[in-house]
Amino acid sequence: METSQHKPHFPACFVELPPETEGRRAAFYLAAEEYVAEALPTGSYFFTWQLRPTVVMGRNQVAHQEVDLDFCRREGIDVIRRRSGGGAIFADERNIMTSLITESVPVEPLFQEYAEAVAQALRQLGAPAIVSGRNDIVLEDGGSFKVCGNAFYQKVNCCIAHGTMLYDTNPRLMEGALRPDVSKLEQKGVRSVRSRIGLLKDYLPFGVDELRHRLRLLLTDRTVTLTADDVRHIETLEQRYYDPQYFYGSSARADVVRSARIPGCGLVELHFRLQGSLISSVELRGDFFDLGQAQQNFSDALLGLPFTPERLRQAIAEHHPERSLRGLSEADLMSVLTE
Question: Which of 80, 264, 272, 286 has CA atoms 20 to 30 A from the CA of 65?
């Protein structure tokens, strides 16, 4: 007798979201995956989504190490952390995000089935797609260019696999957003692996909207439609993704030292301990003259902040810890921190 572990998960049931949810932030769709797993009957569910320019980090990554957070803020690129592992990805309106939610089964066979099903669908549409390595789909056309990266995670009652499919993209935003920091970590978070990418637009005679429609036809054979009440429940789950500790925190630790000899002030050294991307301690050292409570003033200004130049600059402009050291200006302090 066939067990549930060996039943195929494709064709799956398509999850149709209300039209007004189109174009939401990535956290909404990640929460929708969780909601489907919790609220719908046991089964195999699939849906697709598209995003405005967004970076989605893996569960174990260090935010400032993987993403140029200040660049993203300037360019209006959203940044979200997902619950699955793997590396950071950039997506925009010209990518298709895919989600598969199933009952709890052995992960490796499911993940392989998921990747093979997506690759087969792309082959049926005219792209020479094959599964490569542990989680990628590439175009086997003389160069093995990556067109789909996938990730997964397992909860007590379900498995969730999701991927990013490159129909086209904005290379300037992708390259600017995914720029790792050079800080030396004691325990490194997972680093994204930069791959040569391919674009499905070069192989398919139709646009991204038509691709999304055809994937639904090839990978699903029935539909469940979510209601406005379902959306409200998803929005409640969504809020957890915006918790600063969840977004910036990580088990990875880093010791970062910034130092410079400033004329008229002396040697200024700032020793940071980072927990993920958050400053968990700061120690002031050097041969400067302390004008009173310098260590406390620097700690008050910088503790708990994300370790990015823009956030540090804002904190200095607001709290002026440099006034605790004789001969140190705001510009001098910023030059030390952003060396």
Answer: 286
Residue ranges and CATH numbers for the domains of the chain are 4-248 (3.30.930.10), 253-337 (3.30.390.50)
Are 164 and 97 in contact by the 8 Å Cβ rule? The answer is yes
List of E strands, 226-296: 253-262, 266-275, 278-286
Cα separation, 272 vs 258, in Å, equals 8
Asked whether the whole model's pTM tops 0.85, one would answer no
User: Does position 156 have pLDDT exceeding 60, yes or no?
Assistant: yes
Helix (H), strand (E) counts: the chain: 11, 14
Q: What is the distance between the alpha carbons of residues 31 and 35, in angstroms, rounded to a whole number? A: 6
**pLDDT tens readout for residues 188-208:** 444 554 557 899 999 999 999
| Alpha-carbon span 157 to 41, nearest angstrom | 11
Kindly write down the DSSP assignment for every residue of 136-181, as one continuous string.
EEEETTTT-EEEEEEEEEE-SSEEEEEEEEES---HHHHHHH----
Nearest Cα residue to 64 out of 84, 83, 88, 28: 88
Average confidence (pLDDT) over 271-293: 90
Q: Give residue 226's identity as a one-letter amino acid code.
A: L
Question: Is 60:185 a contact under the CB 8 Å cutoff?
Answer: no
**Beta carbons of 39 and 230 less than 8 angstroms apart:** yes
Tokens of 261: 């000899």
